[in-house]
Every structure is written in C-alpha cells, then in structure tokens.
Design a protein that fits this description.
The chain has 249 residues and is α/β, with parallel strands linked by helices. It has eleven helices and eight strands. It is 43% helix and 15% strand. The protein is globular. Bound molecules: 1,3-dihydroxyacetonephosphate.
C-alpha cells in the first residue's frame, strides 16, 4: 500500500510572515494527519523560515528546483548540498513552468534527477502534456518520452526512489482540473511504463496528480487507484484549503 503524499508548491509566492503563519497552521494539524506524508516547497529564500517553523513536526520540506552541478562557479544557482543543509528532503524537478519559461529540457530534467538522487534528495519529477498536445492526441507519447528520458539517465532500479508528478499543463493554475478518469488514465499509463521495465518499481513508485487540485475535487482524484497524492500550487497558499485536501487523502 503506497502512503499518500501531499506536497505544497508555493511557486514564487510568500514573505516571511506568510510562511510563518502558513507553516504554523499546518504543523498544528499534523497530529491529525497521521496516515499521510506532507511536504512543503517554499521558495529558496523562505526555506529557513519554514524549517524553523516545521522543526520537530512530521511536516517535511522541499525545494522547487536545484542545479545539476555540485557547488562551484554557477552564479544564482542552488546546489543539492545547500538544499540538504537548509533542511530539504524533497526537490521538485522539471515543473512545466521551468520547462516552458526557463528552457528546461528532458535532458536537463534527467541530469537534475540524477544529481538529486546522488546527493540524497528525493526528486519529484514532473511530467505532463500541453493543451495542444492533448487536443492532437499526443498526451501519452509526450509523457512517455518525458519519463523515459529520466529512466534512461538514472536507470530503472533507481526509479523506486523517485516520485512522479503528472501535471497536465492545461490544468495548472487554470481552475480546469483533469477529471478523475483522465488523471487515472494517465497515472495507469505511467505505471504500466514502469511495470514493463521493472515490476517492483511500478508497485513502489508514488505518482502524484497536480493541476488545480482543490478541497472540492481532491477526494475524487485521490480515490483513484493509481493517484498516490497531490502536488498542489494555488491551494497550498491557503492553510484551510491545503489542510482540506490533506484531510480528504
Ligand atoms: P495549481 O494547483 O495552482 O494548479 O498548480 C499546480 C502545480 O503546478 C503544482 O506544482
């Protein structure tokens, strides 16, 4: 049985006061959320604030990106070692915003995933098709290619140590959620791709859904057999909404 994992991706939002209040409200509820894993991914600059606020609780911390290199002359970048030092266990890799706005490719996503694993971080690797790709029936081939390039880089045996997030680009921040059938269909396709290469990995690997997940649609999505949790953007900035989603898991 895969334990559900709920991850808040704050994206480029928040100030210290907000981080403080949001973390305090979530930590306060953690004792009532015993059977799920919860992680928060604030912007780099708020990690320390979030670490202080979540210290001693079951609430875990993650980052939204990392550099593929070890420490060195890479101005503006943040290394895996720095993230570990800041208290991160998790790191989101290859979010569609990073792919479309910052030029990340399947190749860089694979390399960052390998770097995270080598340095002891747990990668949450994002995949997902655009609206045009779905309209033209390419959604499975796009997702297959995104996932396969990561498998090729890290090897199928290491895939048991990654979490995959299926985030259809057309559902991110739009209020348009994939139906449970659409999401389950893609999650099952992803798991089949893993199973065809390694059965145990397919059983162990958690596949999260992301894209306008809210309190009012979470339970139908999280009730699907291959949906093992959520990667939550907008709704993770509001403690009541985020906790509502966590409770429905
Ligand atoms: P929204 O929940 O705001 O649609 O964002 C989803 C997402 O991109 C999480 O990484």
């Amino acid at each position: 049985m895969r334990k559900k994992l709920l991850v808040g991706n704050w994206k480029m939002n928040g100030r210290r006061v907000m981080a403080n209040e949001l973390c305090a409200a979530i930590v306060n509820e953690m004792q009532n959320l015993k059977n799920i894993d919860v992680a928060l991914c604030p912007p780099f600059i708020l990690l320390d604030e979030a670490r202080k606020m979540t210290a001693g609780s079951e609430c875990m911390l993650g980052a939204q990106d990392l550099d593929m290199h070890d420490d060195g002359a890479y101005t503006g970048q943040v290394s895996a070692g720095m993230l570990k030092d800041a208290g991160c266990e998790w790191v989101i890799i290859g979010h569609s915003e990073r792919r479309t706005l910052f030029g990340e490719t399947n190749l860089t996503v694979g390399k960052k995933t390998k770097q995270a694993l080598n340095r002891g971080l747990k990668p949450i690797v994002c995949v997902g098709e655009t609206e045009d790709e779905r309209k033209t029936g390419q959604e499975t081939s796009i997702v297959q290619e995104q996932l396969q390039s990561v498998i090729d880089e890290i090897g199928i045996d290491s895939c048991k140590d990654i979490t995959i997030a299926y985030e259809p680009v057309w559902a991110i921040g739009t209020g348009l959620t994939a139906t449970p059938e659409e999401a389950q269909g893609m999650h099952s396709f992803i798991r089949k791709q893993l199973r065809s290469q390694h059965d145990e990995t397919a059983k162990a690997c958690r596949i999260l859904y992301g894209g306008s997940m809210k309190q009012n649609n979470a339970s139908s999505l999280l009730g699907c057999p291959d949906i093992d949790g959520g990667l939550i953007g907008g709704a993770s900035l509001n403690a009541d909404e985020f906790l509502g989603i966590c409770r429905s898991a």
